[in-house]
Amino acid sequence: MITFWVAVLSVSILIYVLLDGFDLGIGIIFGFMPTEARRASLLQAIEPLWDGNETWLVVTGVVLWGAFPIVYATLLSAFYLPLLAMLGGLILRGVAFEFRDKAERLRWIWDAGFALGSLVAAFVQGVAVGALVEGLPMSDGQYVGGDFGWASPFALLCGVGLSIGYALLGAAWLAYKCEGELKDTAYRLIRFLAPGLLFFLVVVFAFALNKNFAVMERWLTRPILFLFPMVGVSAGALLGASIKQRWDAGPFITVAIVFVSAFGTLALSFWPYMIPFSITIDQAAAPRESLSFMFWGAGLFVFPLMLVYVVFNYRVFRGKNRPSADHY
After folding, report:
1. Average pLDDT over residues 235-264
2. Which of 265, 269, 317, 324 has the fewest CB atoms in 10 Å of its CB?
3. What is the rounded average pLDDT for all residues in the chain?
4. DSSP characters for 279-312?
């Protein structure tokens, strides 16, 4: 049961990062678009998908709450203020998405709200990852860092890095979904953003190895673990080839592989800890009876149905986005 729920949590996080990551990235790019026509085209590229993407954040929270309550409580204690900011950003971008079409004189306010909400949500998620990599102030399994124990230059750098990564995912999605001038703009953004993401990943990996000797020893004694970073490097090379060949689906696929390899690299670096070097998976897991009870509902029916829904949704709205009366 513990292994099953770890797998569900991992898949939920990955799906959220890849799917909501690209539409948060498009929200960040949205703030730099100079014309209303460009901004409308960006929104049309995510309009039928964005709210379903955010559902996976709810799934992640529910799995943590039910299957790993100690981790849920620790993360809320540590990131209470950043999580409030993230939720505020997600609410702001959702409201702005719906209101901007109705506004005329004050549309610029909702445009700014959509871009700002996207940036805040992406930045906070990066800060949380950076704080976990660096290590939260813990004592006897309890968070003791206060309201700002998560704050550090490295965590803030990770916030910037993940924002760049999400913007790269968004640009790759635009290259896949759009045509004409907007597609050309997306390719230019990919060339600009990809080196930034590469630099960020190298810094995080080097910091994790240098921060704790146990992490470095694990990688040095088990060279097979370097398979994940090697996959990421190979995907980066393929990203360059896909840009050169103008294979529109290539950038999104390769950037997604880079994200998956980065996730796998971090997970292997800190396994079996869920809160690095403080709380292990076994210590965090709920009683077996609770995990089994959840399995017969959420595990056996809700989670598979959500996977089916995602596949169906993206199949229905596949192909290039073209302007039409219904915006899809």
Report:
1. 90
2. 324
3. 88
4. EEHHHHPPPHHHHHHHIIIIIIIIHHHHHHHHHH
